[in-house]
């Protein structure tokens, strides 16, 4: 039996990663489940994390190169019958890299063309939608701020995500609710897919 590919997207502080872990604990009781994430812990993902200075196009190429390798692994896991849960995929590049940072952004058309060549379309993508102000407060309370976490920038990332969600039929989850309610909502969608 072929598996499934389910992606969790959203700005930092949206709760997507902890929800994905809870989903994995739940479904792994009955299904073979693999959890994975981008940027990966492979060579290109580690290179990305180690860069101190870069230009937006280079960064976009590296995120996409990392994804190209990762997609080969994901295909194998799906073919082996696993349910693959992935924290971030191509929508992260389209939403983040096309938003303006320090007066620069990457051309959306170019990002789409690049990514469309390397991705497979997930069976479902959950977009954890939250007001960036609330997301930032959560991130700050964990002491984990990165350069991607400025308010104006995240507002644009959120708008990009919501546009994509409409276009590519993502499941938009109201992530401002208590995490038990968010998990129940996500599980109700996943149980229809399994
Ligand atoms: P993480 O905090 O979910 O591990 O992601 C690391 C950061 O990388 C996050 O702030 C979003 C950013 N990112 C992009 O800008 N583009 C991408 O394609 C990916 C996968 C992540």
Question: Could you explain how this protein is built, in words?
Answer:
Helix 2 (43-50) runs antiparallel to helix 3 (56-79). Helices cover 55% and strands 14% of the residues. The N and C termini lie close together (12 Å). With 194 residues, the protein is α/β, with parallel strands linked by helices. The protein has helices at residues 16-27, 43-50, 56-79, 90-97, 108-118, 132-141, 151-168, 179-193; strands at 4-10, 33-37, 83-87, 124-129, 171-174. It has a single domain, classed as Rossmann fold, CATH 3.40.50. The chain binds thymidine-5'-phosphate. Thymidine-5'-phosphate binds at residues 12, 38-39, 63, 88, 92-93, 96-97, 146, 148.
Please give the structural blueprint.
Layout: E1 4-10, H1 16-27, E2 33-37, H2 43-50, H3 56-79, E3 83-87, H4 90-97, H5 108-118, E4 124-129, H6 132-141, H7 151-168, E5 171-174, H8 179-193
Parallel strand pairs: 1-3, 1-4, 2-3, 4-5
Helix pairs in contact: 2-3, 3-5, 4-5, 4-7
The structure holds thymidine-5'-phosphate (TMP).
Thymidine-5'-phosphate is lined by residues 12, 38-39, 63, 88, 92-93, 96-97, 146, 148.
Provide the CATH architecture: 3-Layer(aba) Sandwich
Number of domains: 1
The name CATH uses for the topology is Rossmann fold
Structural class, from secondary structure content? alpha/beta
Number of strands: 5
Side-by-side strand order of the widest sheet: 2-3-1-4-5
Which ligands accompany this protein? thymidine-5'-phosphate
Largest sheet: 5 strands, parallel
Low-confidence stretches: none
Order of helical and strand elements: EHEHHEHHEHHEH
